[in-house]
Design brief:
By secondary structure, the chain is an alpha/beta fold. The chain folds into two domains: 2-166, Peroxisomal Thiolase, Chain A, domain 1 (3-Layer(aba) Sandwich); 170-315, Thiolase/Chalcone synthase (Peroxisomal Thiolase, Chain A, domain 1). The protein contains ten helices and 13 strands. The chain has helices spanning 17-20, 28-35, 48-62, 87-95, 110-123, 147-150, 208-229, 247-257, 268-271, 278-288; strands at residues 2-9, 14-16, 39-41, 72-76, 101-104, 129-136, 156-163, 168-175, 182-183, 205-206, 239-242, 297-304, 308-315. Helix 3 (48-62) packs across helix 4. The chain binds acetyl coenzyme *A.
């Protein structure tokens, strides 16, 4: 696999920490010190589909392709206005692609899993050019009376176009079934047969400290394992492009791996936690700011609800 183009799209509305004090008892100081987040982007008149389309078009253009050239679209998405069809079907039609497409729902690690699936499609010759997209609106997971979760998130979308190449060097995916630390139930229509109380809708549930602990320990251990298994050291890696959940989680992983600040770029301070979109948003930012060169070794690593982790080692 080789990345031949990236693109991203963010909502225009910038929401500062101070703006959130209108809705609940919180403060800029609390949010900054616990999470590192200063602002986030939240959708107003845009839809997630708009962001997904723009991110996809930007990535396809950067790859020097047309939508018709795509052989597959794989989209990481947890929620949007529709339960079905998949978001990738809607994007496919809107951008004028004709290839098959599907969504993966793996929460924050979704982009890395999608990239790993793309690699296997390329290796087996199933597809030549694949759009790997992540589009998320986690601000809609939150109950906007719950300060514990609402301050953490932002919306966004980003994509990478990949084709066959020799840049992929390995990946590690893990799932440890621990569904209680971070989950959200679907709102389902009641049937006349259900026993009362079986299906309840519920705002997002997050045991913050447990998520924090699992994120730092699992992600660090998996990255370490991946690097060792491929004969690399932390110092060989130009960038660790981590899921942007919380600055303290990122710093915890950096400390464990004994990496430098330069190796751990961040966008969480600007965009908050955009779920699975955070890794490709950061990747696209590095590309567009000319901070990453062809051949640079990168690790993309995501972690989230499940509990899942996904880490991918490749050359840009
Ligand atoms: N503003 C002010 N006070 C708050 C807020 C807020 N927004 N949210 C919670 N508090 C209060 C709580 O009510 C509690 O008060 P109490 O002590 O009187 O009961 C107190 O702050 C909790 O403070 P701490 O325990 O010090 O909080 P902590 O340092 O654990 O930080 C946080 C909480 C930021 C959620 C942290 O646990 C965390 O980052 N966890 C990881 C969660 C995460 O990243 N989730 C993202 C989704 S999952 C993913 O992407 C992988």
């Amino acid at each position: 696999m080789k990345i031949i183009g990236t693109g991203s799209a963010l909502p225009k509305k910038v929401v500062t920490n101070d703006m959130l004090t209108e809705f609940f008892d919180t403060s800029d100081e609390w949010i900054r010190t616990r999470t590192g987040i200063e602002t986030r982007r939240i959708m107003t008149d845009e839809s997630l589909l708009d962001l997904a389309i723009t991110a996809s078009r930007n990535a396809i253009e950067a790859a020097g392709l047309k939508a018709e050239d795509l052989d597959y679209i794989i989209c990481s998405n947890v929620n949007n206005n529709y339960v079905y069809p998949s978001l990738s079907c809607m994007v496919q039609g809107a951008i004028g692609a004709t290839c098959p497409c599907f969504d993966v729902r793996i929460a924050c690690a979704g982009f890395v899993y999608a990239m790993d699936i793309a690699e296997s499609f390329l290796t087996t010759g199933r597809a030549g050019k694949i759009l790997v997209l992540a589009a998320e609106e986690p601000t809609r997971f939150c109950h906007w009376k719950q300060r514990e979760t609402s301050v953490l998130f932002g919306d966004g979308a980003a994509a990478a176009v990949v084709e066959a190449g020799n840049e992929y060097m390995g990946a590690r995916m893990t799932t440890i079934s621990n569904t209680e630390v971070l989950y959200q139930r679907n709102r389902l229509e009641p049937t006349p047969f259900e026993v009362e109380g079986v299906y309840v809708d519920h705002p997002m549930v997050m045991l913050g400290r447990e998520v924090f602990r699992m994120a730092v320990s699992n992600c660090s251990a998996e990255i370490n394992h991946l690097l060792k298994s491929k004969g690399y050291q932390v110092s060989d890696v130009k960038y660790f492009i981590l899921h942007q959940a919380n600055m303290r989680i990122i710093k915890g992983i950096q400390q464990y791996l004994e990496g430098t600040d330069e190796q751990f770029p961040t966008t969480v301070q600007k965009y908050g936690n955009t779920s699975s979109a955070s890794i490709p948003i950061l990747l696209d930012e590095l590309v567009r700011d000319n901070k990453i060169a062809r051949g640079d070794l990168i690790v993309m690593s995501g972690f989230g609800s499940g509990f899942t982790t996904g880490s991918l080692l490749m050359k840009y």
